[in-house]
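FAQ: What does a multi-protein file look like?

Like this. Sequence, then tokens, then the next protein.
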Amino acid sequence: MVYTLTLNPAIDYYIDMNNFEEGELNKVNNAYTLAGGKGINVSKVLKKFHIESLALGFCGGFTGDYIKKHLKEYSIKENFIYLKDDTRINIKLKTSKTESEIAGKSPNISKENIDELLSFIKNNVKENDILVLSGSVPNSVESTIYRDIILTANKNIRVILDSRDKAFKIGLREGVFLTKPNKKELGEYFNIKIETEKDIIKYACELIKEGSENVIVSLGKEGSILVTKDEIYKGNAPEGKLISSVGAGDSMIAGMVYGISKNLSITESYKYAIASGSSTACSEGLTDFENMNKFLLKTEITKIN
């Protein structure tokens, strides 16, 4: 079974306009809303790939009801713990020049809420399951949360940790199957500026020393690099017209989970990760299985000595 966890979900309000002028009345060309959150995105892509998952997390208020309804429409099973506060609303603004985001205020999550989550994980996540821990940690939650979840879960599961900052660092020390920083996040983690491919490989190897069995570093249009304990691979960025990078990283995770759940090798799973991320970047919204396969035909990986 695949479980995805989103501690800090949101309603994502997407706005498309020609230009944004601060302090002025701005007109929107197009707008739509989706249930957002990195773990939710992973579950949605997996559903399109015909892989069942159970979405975990917290939600509350009318916005929380929207998220639960949205997941139901996707036929995604969920076990969200209900909160007193409203789930946040994020604004994702795209103009002819840039993409910007305003992150909404997170609801309060109590110790009792966290204990309920940990109890569920302890009693339900079994051997050989995959647990995807994605996204930011709300201010009301201790930065030890990912560590606590990993320590609570069955030891013989594969944990994918896709986060950043202190919660990521503390969780990583307990050992995970995969992490997926981008180039900027990798540099932030080690407090250095990464400029060369050699730097990327060096610090990805450092992440392995700190507890990640495998590391994918996404490089945007320059492709990505997979570092395992024994080998290093460079993946291309399959050609396509970029529409939006939103959800591309989560789609990479979903592609990786797809390969793993099909008992493919780490390198074959990596190809699905590349194809999934690239397909979403060149799509309106998240990729589907058919479009991902078109990008899979253009996906290439090369072993680096």
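And here is the next protein:
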Amino acid sequence: MKNILLNQKAERDELLGRPYQPRETKYDFGDLLTNPLIKLITGPRRVGKSVLALLMLRGRNFAYLNFDDILLLENWDEELVMQMLDQVYPGYDFLLLDEIQNLPNWDMWVNKLYRRGKNLVITGSNAKMLSSEMATVLTGRYLQIDLLPFSLEETMQWKGIAEGQAIQTATLSDDYMRNGGYPETIQARSITKSYLSTLFDSILLKDVAQRHNVRNTTDLYNLATYLLSNFCNPISSNELAEAVGLSSVTTTKKYCDYLAEPYLFYYLPRFNNKLKLMKKAPSKVYVVDNGFVQSTAFNLSDNLGRLLENQVFVELLRRGYIPGQTLFYYRTRNDKEIDFVTRKGARVEQLIQVCYDMSGEKTRKREFDALTEASDELRCDNLIVVTASEDASIEKAGKHIEVVSVGKF
């Protein structure tokens, strides 16, 4: 066990020596670490949760356990591990537990460590497991920090592109929309397709099929690929079951839930003040990063409009909006669609349309008419259209509409 921990310490020290792009977070690291609550960093695989934890703990005396290490899991002995931690990291002040969900009954052990006064930083890649188990066993004892792939702003910082470099900004913005923000791919776009295709398969097999004992992995893969190819579209379980050839709608719903757990897909419900009607309407499906669409989905066109819409959805997640609670889509009484409705408390906060190219008069009329109609129905005057590159202020039917380029948004 000591050798396993020493090898992990060498891995930790090597990681600490690398240069990293600081991540956007609303928290101050110093404030977080002085707080005795458990610091839980969640998000998809390979977005930099471990890096964020290392940046948070850099320069401090902390112990490290990586639960993506099969040797640690196979030789797990709770008491022995604690003894060896004291030897390998004498007098440590913090304990970092990386990818903790791989350890059986991890929540009970973490609860015990917390009661013993350990200052814990935890990372994990499974939404349902973490949220349900943290909520039941560790209620009120943790702070959750959500991490997603790099934002457009973080990507520009990493590339060293400053404000005012218009051509470079436009080029990178287009590249980001098409290829996404996974950290490993930003410096080497030539590997994006193979890297994300492999990561997609790994998430399906390791985080979904293995965890839930899914025997028919072909059905699971077909469903995931279909969702990717139909990103930003409203889809019902009945339609999905028929399209993919699954015999059971119940199984289809279950597989869709599984695919949301590792933060791969998100489902956005249609806004309705009546909960029963909201649940009956089809949800729109989104993917955590545009790169997955380009690397895995079967598409015959560039889908620039939908890629931009998906990018805006992920940005809204990054700002803390929660699908089904503070974030929805909407259809007016005349069946005009609003891409995003955000809510603050009981009040509708803003209505957002996404349109890649607003140059056509017919397109402008469609987007503006939908916004003005929804504005009256939902009593909201904060109206926005996000575009690829246009910025303008528009007056339409007595309403003020802000047209904002995605970079400014």
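Q: Is there any per-entry metadata?
A: Some entries carry free-text notes. For the entry above: The longest strand covers residues 337-344.
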